[in-house]
Request: fold
Amino acid sequence: MEYDDLLNMGTELGYQLMYSGAEIYRVEESVNRLLTAYGLQPQVFAIPNCLIVSLNTPSGHPITSMRRIPSHGTDIELLEACNDLCRRLCREVPPLEEAKELVRRLGEGHRAHPTWVLLMGYVVAAAFFAAFFGGNFRDMVSAGLCGLGVGLWTLCLSKPLRVAGFFQTLIGAAIASLLSLLFTGIGLGVNLNYITIGTLMVLVPGMALTNAMREIVNGDIISGINRASEAILTAAAISLGVILSLTMGM
Amino acid sequence: MEQITAILLPCLWSFIACVGFGLVFNIHGFGVLICGFGGALGWLTYLLSQRAMGGDVVPAFFAAVVIAIYAETMARIRRCPVTGYLQVALLPLVPGAGIYNAMRYCVASETDLFISTLLHTFGVAAALAIGAMLSSTVLRIILPRLSGKAGK
Reply:
């Protein structure tokens, strides 16, 4: 059943692309090109949490595969690996067995930063966004420490505790705000607002909102609305978390 | 001198903050610096055009145009998808603080401020998106022809 294998391979590649945070048009186009290179005429449809690939066998029998996409972050390294592989497969069109093996190995062998580097990223981003919004050196140090707290929560604590989505963001924002209250309270930080906003930049859905607008401008309206609602929901979670710890702190 | 510091210092901060975000998004090696430089370039454009015409929706549009041109060029040179560079370099411009402030007004039941801040935030996000899409689309039409001619 060569067509089943081809369909599975295309769907798997699309899944990995979606999981790495690629745009909708990139996912649809990549799967389409890959299967077209193998001589098929696929139909591909994707929205942020679902991917559907359908094709007709030469005898006219339609087959369809659907994958649900769990919530995911952004992983540019995986995205580049998927993109390179897709280009290579379209150019060389290797035998099916070999191509299947290449797609299967996609998720395994890719480089990922160790946790301490990711934490460093959180610290650096929070500290320098605080400076960027107008904080002084002491604000930067406190925002960096707050960023460390949020990073520890997001990367290390929320997964084993199985907190995801709305409440993950809510608790992250509460931690950020509580820590910045603490640091201004003990006299390390000066401007509470700059510290809080700098730290919240690592949680805030500004990127999601801009991506949503890009999807809408691009014509993927369902995906755009989906992402925009997600952004508003995340913003609501953040402000609830902040209000929660502000009232606790008072 | 003070003018120069007021412009260049924020650009430096946005460079380093973007490098931090590049790490969070699992970008490796030289790519992280490309993102950081894009962030600084975008913010420089934003500040300069804000000085020239004021407001913040139109400067955001111009900054997005510059960032998209930069990111598309880099993506072509390094032969990898434009997504990462574009997203990280847009981050300093992205209206995160706007959404946060809007929701803060909402919870404090200051409805007027909430509505105006929220609409303003949507405006900035739309300006960024349209600016980035516009120059990407134009470049995708122009660049292949240029390289095609160079190939001949």
User: Anything to note?
Assistant: Residues 221-249 of chain A form the longest helix (29 residues). Chain A touches chain B through 58 residues (CB under 8 Å).
